[in-house]
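S.,

As promised, the pantoate run. Input:
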Amino acid sequence: MKVVHSRAELDAVRTALSGRVAVVMTMGALHDGHARLMDVAGEHGEQVVVTIFVNPRQFGAGEDLDRYPRTLEADLQVCQAHGVDVVFAPAADDVYPPDETVPVVLAGGLGAVLEGAHRPGHFDGVVTVVSRLLDLTRPDVAVFGEKDAQQLAVIRRMVAAQGRGVEVVGVPTVRERDGLAMSSRNRYLSAAERETALAIPRALDAAERRSAEGPAAVLAAAEAELAGAPGVSVDYVALVDSETWAEPGPRTRFGKILVAARVGSTRLIDNREVTLCGP
Ligand code: PAF
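Predicted complex:
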């Protein structure tokens, strides 16, 4: 496994790669969810490139950019264990050179709702760095987790709008045994907070159980579960049409229930696909 930090090193290594190249973009603090992305990348490409970069442009003022965990040595071990060929771990100046104009990419309407409404500019930062990392790594396939469902949808739209010939693959969320979605931010949680956070997957379970009763019941079930969970402060609970991301209509068959909530000072997001078949 080659570990490179500068664009010049990456370019040399990338040019020497043959066959299909799959990229997994991460901000490090790697866990089993990321490991799964690497495994899926290995199924889609002969060569797997992982990027590790805590992108300052996707953090708003007062968010956790400074305390975001940076664990490069441990991350490299995860990459090694999962057959990664190249790790690109650049500094900010390699991604955004001060003497170059890096195009800012806008996430559009979908980037302004839900997660985007609570974190203004977040998705512009995400698509800007993803676009940049696609330019630098030149993959055939890019693999992203479905836990960040809105991010995945925004990236798919950006890739389509830019006419990039890269295949975007989404990978189902990896969960802890008790149902908590794996996230680099879980490590901020105390033992008690971690227990409290289980209200989020419980809310998704409750929502799914009501799917035969239609959108209003699905949403109400998730809201009720979270409202009854002391220590959970909800940013939003929403049900959207999985295709359009609009409010589900009478013909919507597949919906996505989305939750963002704070437990202590940690903000967590999760989602579940539900088949809507009721009134
Ligand atoms: O999902 C993440 O870890 C980040 O948003 C990404 C896609 C690596 C862009 O910085």
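The chain has a mean pLDDT of 97. Residues 25-27, 55, 58, 126, 129-130, 148, 151 surround pantoate (CB under 6 Å).

- D.
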